[in-house]
Amino acid sequence: MFIDQLKKQRYQNQTYQSHQDIDKRLLPIIEALTIRPDIKLSLDSFAEHCGASSRTLNRLFLTTFDQPFRELRQQLVMEKAWQLSQAGVPHTDIALDLGYNSLSAFSHAFNRFKQDKRDTHLA
């Protein structure tokens, strides 16, 4: 489901491809990230509901997506920010919608993301 939804979005990226079947304990986390990306989503908040520790869940993200949860969450949040920015949504609204406590923290992360995006397209 997560992979299918990501494929439908404009910003297809090989980073999100699963290299194996997705463990059922990851499904509620993936669903939450897909439906409402938020920088404050943490593995600790899902751990007790999933029946696994946050370390186990992070290992599952590493083996399934070749990156830890935190990096995947950051990328999804920034991709959502990019979409909203391209649609003309003010950055203050984007920052609040994606769970940032301050506009400056969001701006710093978003500018770094845009630079990485530019660097990737130039390579």
Short description:
This protein has 123 residues and is mainly α. It is 66% helix and 0% strand.
Question: Could you walk me through the main structural features you see in this protein, from its secondary elements to its overall organization?
Answer:
This protein is mainly α. The chain contains seven helices and no strands. Helix 5 packs across helix 7 (103-122).
Q: Key features?
A:
123 residues, mainly alpha
Layout of helices and strands:
Layout (H helix, E strand, L loop, with lengths): L1 H7 L18 H9 L7 H8 L3 H12 L3 H18 L4 H7 L5 H20 L1
Helix pairs in contact: 3-4, 5-7
Helix-strand pattern = HHHHHHH
The oligomeric state of the chains shown is single chain
What's the gyration radius in Å?
15 Å
Averaging pLDDT over every residue, what do you get?
85
Tally of helical runs: 7
Count of DSSP strands = 0
Largest sheet: none
Which blocks of ≥5 consecutive residues have pLDDT under 50?
3-15
Gross geometry: globular
Overall SS class: mainly alpha
* Percentage of residues in DSSP E strands: under 5%
Report how far apart the termini are: 31 Å
